[in-house]
Every structure is written in C-alpha cells, then in structure tokens.
Amino acid sequence: MSQLVVPVIYGSVRTERQGIRAARFFVNELRGRGMNGVLVDPLEKQLPLLDRMYKEYPKGEAPPVLEELAELYRSADGFVIVSGEYNRGLPPALKNTLDYFLEEYYWRPAAIVSYSGGRWGGTRASAQLRSVLGEMGMVTIPTDFPIANVGDAFSENGEPSDPKMREQAAPLLDEFLWYVNALRTARLAGVPY
C-alpha cells in the first residue's frame, strides 16, 4: 500500500501569525508516523478571494495553483485543518482556501486543530469548522485538538515547548489514522455517487 497523503491546511495570512508553528508541528508528527504530511499555506499559495471554484473552470484552464491543489487533494487520504479563531469564528483565509474545492474532499476524514493566543484554544472556531467540513463532504473525527497560548507553544519550526505536546497529540493522530484507513478501504470498494 502506498504512503498515506495528508494535506495540513493552515488558515492565516496575518503578518505576525503564530499558528503556522502548530501546522508545522502536525506536518512533522504525520511524517514521523510515516505519512506524507504536506503543508498547504494560503500565504504561500496566494489564492485571491474566491470568484470561481476549481470545478467551474473549463478543463485545463484553472490557474496552476488550483491544479496543483486539486491534484494533491485527489491523492489525499485525509486532511488536518489548522484554524485560529477570529472574533469567535473561522479565519477568512482558511474559509477562502477551503471553498475552492468540494468533490476533492468527499469521503475523507478531517482532524481539526484549533488555536488561539488565549486560553480557549480556538474552540469556538473548531465548532464552526466541524459544520463547514461536514458540508464539504469530509468526515470530522470526534477528537479535536485545541492549543492555548499558541505563541508560546512552539518554536518557529514547530518544535513544541512542552515535550508532553507529542504525547497529548497522540490520541488525535491515532484516531485520525484509524479513520484514514477505514475510509480509504471503503473508498476503494466504491462510494454512493
């Protein structure tokens, strides 16, 4: 069986963003478990505000960045979504990045990682994200992972300040891997439509 592919979709383009460190941590953790964790950073991708979804372009005429993401998402076995909380909701860059696609997400699990600069760890954005991802055809796993005080939680490259962070993230990753394998097997047997 080929290596599992897991895009880690991050959702901030702010100048002083701290959550990118959490996204890097999860990319590293996935790779440490033998998966191909791929960071999708909206700042790097420079997607404009959504005008047309990928599927609304004539075949072969979508911008190269959308073709690249579509190929990655079609090969994905699951997604890790890393979201901050802006005014009790989702960051606009995350929603914009997600909304370009739909069918590419179908029948795949999503793990939700949320964060904030305060003590609540982005839990209100996480609740909204669960609804959005379900509408997009993803299966959100029951466990989520809120990270409080994200600015102090990781080094720039995603190394956790507290060595127990890896141990704390393990149940989420174990559950996610179970869903990845279960849904991968089910997709190979066929999907309802």
Distance between the termini: 24 Å
Helix/strand/pairing class, anyone? alpha/beta
Strand content: 15-25%
CATH superfamily: Flavodoxin domain
Task: Please state the oligomeric state of the protein chains shown.
Answer: single chain
Nearest-angstrom radius of gyration? 16 Å
CATH class assignment: Alpha Beta
Count the DSSP helices: 7
CATH topology: Rossmann fold
The residue-averaged pLDDT reads 95
Largest sheet descriptor? 5 strands, parallel
Structural domain tally: 1
Task: Provide a brief overview of the structure.
The chain has 193 residues and is α/β, with parallel strands linked by helices.
Structure description:
This protein has 193 residues and is α/β, with parallel strands linked by helices. The protein has one domain: Flavodoxin domain (Rossmann fold), CATH 3.40.50.360. The protein contains 7 helices and 5 strands; from the N terminus they run βαβααβαβαβαα. It has a 5-stranded parallel β-sheet with strand order 2-1-3-4-5, with helices on both faces. It is globular.
Could you name the key traits of this structure?
Rossmann fold; 42% helix; alpha/beta; globular; 193 residues
Question: Would you spell out the secondary-structure blueprint of this structure?
Answer:
Blueprint: E1 5-10, H1 19-32, E2 36-40, H2 42-45, H3 64-75, E3 79-83, H4 92-99, E4 108-115, H5 123-135, E5 138-147, H6 150-153, H7 164-189
